[in-house]
Amino acid sequence: MHSKYFYDERGDYIFQQIMEMEEYYLTKAEMDILSKQSGEISTVLMETASPFDLIELGAGDATKSVHLLKELLSRKADFRYLPIDISAHVISDLEEQLPAKLPGLNIIGLNGDYLDMLQEAAETADRRKVILFMGANIGNMSPAEARQFCMDLKAHMSKDDILIIGFDLKKEPKQILAAYDDANGITSAFNMNLLHRINSELDGEFNLNNFEHYASYDPESGACKSYLISLKDQVVKIGDSASISFTKNEHIFMEISQKYALNEITQLASSTGFMLHRNFFDQHEYFVDSIWKVG
Ligand code: AVJ
């Protein structure tokens, strides 16, 4: 299942609720980094004096990047902000709301897939690029997919370009699991929304009561995975011609949220052609925003 299918309007809304959950430490941790260390991050971005495009992959509501944008504006950095998001309304909201919050911000929103839009952004300008890929969005890829994605990013980058990439770190397994198996069932609703989407957009007949959310975390591989488990033998029609049969306890794999150890991040950078320049941690060291440079 490609993670982009989670984020229709309802999915965006449920994800907002996830970010506000007590158990979901990731957003708070990255907010801690951006709110306290945007000054130092800006210094790194401005070490080269030339103008740049700040391209954010999966910008969402940009509540974290706002701190960095503020800092760059106050330092009179010469840059444009190009948020990329798969949700059209996310992009139109940003274009509407950010300039009011951040006077002087030059913003050009791009709605679409990361790499397509990155290509488009690269074609419109020959300025150096700073790419933000935060929020542990890379966690939705398997380690092999993440490696391929970093190589694809690298192929779109040139000398003096910078990548800032957010990883959720391996930590106490119970803490990780709780973030994806919350007491109020919000993560369950996030997953169920995909069945709901199939029902409404593809004329499916999933009965959501016949499935149950199940999350697992494997401290060895760092893979946190979520599934929907069929509660009985059932056949689900989708549209006029398709049907899927499930046996009792059969699983649907929904999502991976991969966790990384620091040495795995260093290894990922170097094996995909980057140089790890600096790591920024939150106060608990739950999360890292890692700055990678192109040779
Ligand atoms: C948006 C990929 C960072 O994996 O933590 C949260 C998505 N899914 N709870 C994550 C998600 C279920 C989230 N990312």
What does this structure look like?
- This protein is globular.
- Helix 1 (9-20) runs antiparallel to helix 8 and helix 2 packs parallel to helix 3 (65-74).
- Strands 3-2-1-4-5-12-11 form a seven-stranded mixed beta sheet, sandwiched between helices. The chain has a three-stranded antiparallel beta sheet with strand order 6-7-10. A two-stranded antiparallel ribbon has the order 8-9.
- By secondary structure, it is α/β, with parallel strands linked by helices.
- The protein has nine helices and twelve strands.
- N,N,N-trimethyl-histidine binds at residues 18, 26, 135-137, 139-140, 180, 187, 190, 255, 257.
Quick take:
The chain is of the alpha/beta class and 295 residues long.
The share of residues in extended strands comes to 25-35%
The Rg value, from CA coordinates, equals 20 Å
Percent in helix: 25-40%
Strand arrangement, major sheet: 3-2-1-4-5-12-11
What small molecules does this complex bind?
N,N,N-trimethyl-histidine
Shape call: globular
- Average the pLDDT over all residues and give the rounded result: 95
Q: Total number of helical segments?
A: 9
The end-to-end distance, rounded to whole angstroms, is 34 Å
Report the oligomer.
single chain
Residue stretches low in confidence (pLDDT < 50, at least 5 long) are: none
The secondary-structure class comes to alpha/beta
SSE pattern: HHEHEHEHEHEHHEEEEEHEE
Number of strands: 12
Q: Largest beta sheet, briefly?
A: 7 strands, mixed
